[in-house]
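REQUEST
  id: r-88c1
  op: predict_structure
  target: ABC transporter ATP-binding protein
  payload:
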Amino acid sequence: MSLAAPARALIQPGAEEALILLKGVWKVFKMPSGTFEALKNINLSIRAGEFVSVTGKSGSGKSTLVNMITGIDRPTRGEVRVNGTLLNTLSEGALSVWRGHNLGIVFQFFQLLPMLSVLENVMLPMDFCNRYDPAERESRAMDLLKMVGLEKVAHKLPAALSGGQQQCAAIARALANDPPILVADEPTGNLDSRTAAHVMAIFTDLVAHGKTLVMVTHDLSLAQQAHRVLVISDGELIHPAIVATWPHLSHAAMRHLNRHLHDLRLPPGAELPPSRGVLVLEGSLQPGTTRPRPRLHLEPLAAGAWHLFERPEEAGHFRAGPEGAWVLRWDESAWERLRQDAPDVVTTLQSHRGGQA
Ligand code: ADP
Ligand code: MG
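RESPONSE
  id: r-88c1
  status: 200
  body:
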């Protein structure tokens, strides 16, 4: 087996590379009936130019997560840093000015102002931000409307447009101040599939021209068009390697694997500690030369490969390769908890025993 380069989606970009960075973010809503943890210790980094989709069941925390990035909502604990600015400490006023320069937001229900023409809707954020000269705002707005195919209806009121056209106008409005980042929360949730495809084509083109896009969607086929698919389940962000390696597991199953994993970096030559399961993120694991048991797996495990051990001590037969190894591992007690919480996950994984992402 060759030591292939790791699939990008197995690991997140490092903090130093991140345009969007969430560190230890919790969101706890207080309600009369008690507290509710909508986000649980989210660690997330997104690099400039990435197209990232956010998927998960209704109520899993997708909107709450993107509202942290836009500053529409604030974390209860943790840090949110976007394009170099720590959002936690900004006042509401400072936040809306910051947002105007840095982010375009697209919502499921368009949210155009009904009394203004489509063109005026697109010009409004320019008037708020004052980034472009007043004399050039109208022609800039018209150019954006041309880009989304709406120049012919620029002077109409939003109500005269179809849903798809209104969403395209909302995208033009989000681009008014040429922000580096676009955040879209279920942008196609209210559109038929043909119109949704048109919106996706606009998004893909924007990403090709350097925009960073974070898009929440229910639709898995749309989510797959992104560079990276995030899965959020009951307020937990599933480790990207779990999503990439076992995309067909249920979200509940992914959550169980996520909860019980250990993240470990091994220096070159270091022995893998006793484990029931291991997934290699970076580097490789090399087997020893002796075979303590006739049927023991003796192939090297390259980045992207995973393996289950019948007995935890058998893991010690593997050592990190010359470049070291970065692995996720599940030890005996993690495996036991997994077996209790989600016996189906264990059975599914055991039926494969090992593989390559
Ligand atoms: P999604 O977008 O994935 O459907 P949300 O992020 O909107 O989910 O909500 C996640 C959970 O947080 C839901 O259970 C929701 O009821 C709860 N929630 C969201 N906003 C509030 C709020 N302002 N107060 C109380 N609970 C909230
Ligand atoms: Mg939502």
